[in-house]
Amino acid sequence: MAEFGTASGAASALSMPEQVDIGNVAAVMASLAGQCQARRQGAGSCLVVDLAALKEFDSTVLSMLLEMRRQAGKPLQVLNPPPKLRSLAELYGVSELLLAPQQAA
Q: Does the structure show a pLDDT above 50 at 4?
């Protein structure tokens, strides 16, 4: 599994691994949970998540993003969402919660 955590390009952004699916979503979420909770108390009005590395995923990534949002206690700002993720978010009716208006279009 690829390394993930804080994106080097954005000091406060969390980055996703290349693959998130039913087989590894619990491990990915466990590795990011502490960082999400730490950002609850931190400065900033949102939790920034960079999906640039995300290549293979299923709908469990939507659940994970919603859980990250809950743990951080802040809205998400998703950077570099793949087109398939935008489609899934719209299909499941969560695009407004996870994606900025320009990203949801």
A: no
